[in-house]
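RECORD TYPE: inverse folding
INPUT: structure tokens
STRUCTURE:
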């Protein structure tokens, strides 16, 4: 059995799907007893994750497990688990943004490396799904307001991360490896907005706003400080120096990483008010 923490997130959900499709038994860790996951998936509450035996490999999602990761992995080690795969971030290797976010990922990596299991680290850049946060503005006005338009990253398609995670969870040859998972094209924010526009057949625009305006808007929308801190901190650094680009996805999957344009096409329904019925 393979345990997926953060199973209802964009990466966890797709990893569950790929593993179930490949015939694996999957334990999906979620606080939601009614989580809509593939038939046959065993739903496990986070509080019960340390009572499960017979787990061969674990996908560790640092946001979902937090400080409980150490207990989870200690139990796994005692009960014969072989492997842990960590969803980490490129910032561990290429610092950008506030150090406290980088330290959370570093701590998760350290926990995995020190637990006695074979480990694989997946250092991911920003997920394409992060740009779903633009959907409301695109639907309402066709303009995305944001700070640091020139910030460039090689955004990764979360489905590619899941495909790599599924390999690392099931193949021993990835033990002791650290992979950098990015797309292959470094794009600015207006270029990403234009790609969504191309997918929708509409002209969209990006309007620059000051970081302070964006921060106040996010806080007024009820989001915690952590959100603007995380977002604006890294964008400021990526405006000075583009985020990293790697060909690890291509090397691991034997095909190019999905492009942001492909992601936008596949998700265009999310950016239309009618859910894509006219797309
Ligand atoms: N987004 C990025 O650009 C990026 C980049 C690098 C690394 N990462 C990391 O990649 C991992 C996967 O990201 P994701 O977007 O697929 O998943 P996610 O949305 O961050 O979280 C996945 C699931 O974990 C549970 N969860 C979230 N916060 C929690 C909390 N505070 N306490 C307990 N459970 C919590 C929720 O599941 P239930 O409600 O079902 O319990 C959620 O659906 C995360 O650890 C993230 O930090 C993300």
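DESIGNED SEQUENCE:
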């Amino acid at each position: 059995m393979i345990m997926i923490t953060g199973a209802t997130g964009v990466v966890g959900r797709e990893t569950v799907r790929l593993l179930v499709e490949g015939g694996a038994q999957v334990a999906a860790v979620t606080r939601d007893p009614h989580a809509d996951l593939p038939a046959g998936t065993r739903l496990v509450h986070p509080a019960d994750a340390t009572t499960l035996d017979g787990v061969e490999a674990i996908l560790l999602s640092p946001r979902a497990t937090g400080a409980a990761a150490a207990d989870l992995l200690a139990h796994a080690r005692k009960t014969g688990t072989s492997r842990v795969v960590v969803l980490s971030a490129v910032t561990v290797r290429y610092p950008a943004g506030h150090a406290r976010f980088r330290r959370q990922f570093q701590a998760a990596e350290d926990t995995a490396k020190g637990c006695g299991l074979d480990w694989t680290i997946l250092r991911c850049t920003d997920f394409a799904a992060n740009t779903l946060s633009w959907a409301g503005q695109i639907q309402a006005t066709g303009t995305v307001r944001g700070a640091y338009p020139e910030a460039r990253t090689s955004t990764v398609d979360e489905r590619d991360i899941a495909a790599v995670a599924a390999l690392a969870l099931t193949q021993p040859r990835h033990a002791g490896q650290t992979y950098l998972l990015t797309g292959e094209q470094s794009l600015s924010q207006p270029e990403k907005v234009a790609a969504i526009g191309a997918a929708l057949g509409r002209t969209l625009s990006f309007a620059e706003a000051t970081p302070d305006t964006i921060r106040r808007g996010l806080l007024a929308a009820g989001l915690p400080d952590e959100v603007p801190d995380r977002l604006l901190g890294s964008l400021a650094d990526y405006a000075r120096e583009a985020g990293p680009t790697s060909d690890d996805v291509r090397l691991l999957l034997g095909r190019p990483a999905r492009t942001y344009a492909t992601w936008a096409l596949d998700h265009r329904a999310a950016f239309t008010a009618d859910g894509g019925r006219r797309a």
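NOTES: The chain has a mean pLDDT of 96.
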